[in-house]
């Protein structure tokens, strides 16, 4: 389980994240929900130590974060864009002891990626799939995804959503931020809603759906008054 | 092991710009040498006709030429800029490589030392290539004037030691060479510390580089002020000892700062 405990982050005079605590379980998809600028990406980066929190801590199964067990997938390339997908794979093999080449090859095939393509030549959707393939092939217990659907076409979205419901993602914990809630709503187990850097609601999506007959978007409307 | 692997990736990334720098350097120097030989030969002919037989060619004159010194200056500036760019390039552009580097399951100082080793290898490589270029230029210089039966004075070593920059790059003793290299590495360490402190300010404004620079200026000036205060009381051996200790302190403090900011403060 990823435990985020009392984290805070200030930007100039604004408290971007204000005493946020939540958990994301292994084998579940937890979605961080919020309008633009509510601190979702900052939270993910903070968990990975890319934007250190001012206060608070993050534990993975009760221990400090182990980067062999957690992968982060940004919404843009995490390699120099003149790298080919092959070069990215070679780099990952060199530095990630858990990198699974066979799994990567399978994902490359499923996503119809071409290893010799440079990242600079990829469309946004193809780049998102390449990023995801590189992240999943790290074979992590937990996967942190920052806006994986941002600006990509419907077919690429479908492929990614299909991947989430495949056996490849079984037993992995996923913490995701996305604005495309409707596309993955039926996959989400838990939602953590943020507003002005605070958690305003945390709920089991199935409970809300079956007990209250509401979708995540309905709950968002209530909370954000949209 | 990871350090060597990352060093290999860094070296691969730097190879192209490094070769461009070297090629530019050689083209400028050999081009200027050609011009210098032609121009000096003309001058010698004029003087000979005027009856001034004492004029002799000197390799030191070539090394003191504006174009030659400018080529060295540009190479030094390029190396300094690259020491900054080797970090900033990983924060810039559509592919933020720093995200990948910082999320690798290993100690972040591996990144620091891989980049440092890359700069050191580039520096040593540049020194070695320039040494070979100088030897070739000297051979061309002596062959040309020998062929024209024009008298020359001064040896290769004398020409180098009479040039301020080359005298520091290629000193007489290996000990001095090592000391001069250490000075270069300390400059690089200060640059690295500057970048890492500056990149650790999440609220990046015009003040981020100013604050970063201020911290380093304090670290740099305290021992210098200390020396100004102590210089009259130190004998030669003690001065050498003082300089040695200061260099070690500078290296230690900049590496410590780099480690602290890289591991716990850096913002991407």
Lay out the secondary structure.
The complex is a heterodimer of chains A (226) and B (268).
Chain A: E1 2-11, E2 14-24, E3 29-33, H1 40-47, E4 55-60, E5 63-64, E6 70-73, H2 85-95, H3 101-110, H4 124-136, E7 142-146, H5 154-164, E8 173-177, H6 181-184, E9 190-195, E10 198-204, H7 205-211, H8 216-224
Parallel strand pairs in A: 3-8, 3-9, 6-7, 7-8
Antiparallel strand pairs in A: 1-2, 1-4, 4-5, 9-10
Chain B: H1 2-49, E1 57-58, H2 59-63, H3 66-88, H4 97-102, H5 109-147, E2 152-153, H6 156-161, H7 164-169, H8 174-198, H9 207-230, H10 236-265
Parallel strand pairs in B: 1-2
Description:
- The complex is a heterodimer of chains A (226) and B (268).
- With 226 residues, chain A is an alpha/beta fold.
- Chain A has helices at 40-47, 85-95, 101-110, 124-136, 154-164, 181-184, 205-211, 216-224, and strands spanning 2-11, 14-24, 29-33, 55-60, 63-64, 70-73, 142-146, 173-177, 190-195, 198-204.
- Chain A has one domain: Rossmann fold (3-Layer(aba) Sandwich).
- Chain A has eight helices and ten strands.
- In chain A, the strands form two sheets. Chain A has a six-stranded mixed sheet with strand order 6-7-8-3-9-10, with helices on both faces. In chain A, strands 2-1-4-5 form a four-stranded antiparallel sheet, covered by helices on one side.
- In chain A, helix 3 runs antiparallel to helix 4.
- The longest helix of chain A is centred in the middle third of the chain and has 13 residues, at 124-136.
- Chain B has 268 residues and is mostly helical.
- Chain B folds into two domains: 1-170, no CATH class; 173-268.
- Chain B is 79% helix and 1% strand.
- Chain B has helices spanning 2-49, 59-63, 66-88, 97-102, 109-147, 156-161, 164-169, 174-198, 207-230, 236-265, and strands at residues 57-58, 152-153.
- Chain B has a two-stranded parallel ribbon.
- Chain B starts with a helix and ends with a helix.
- The A-B interface holds A 11-12, 45, 48-52, 66-68, 71-72, 74, 76-81, 83, 91, 94-98, 119-120 and B 2, 5-6, 9, 13, 89, 93-97, 99-100, 102-106, 202-203, 264-268.
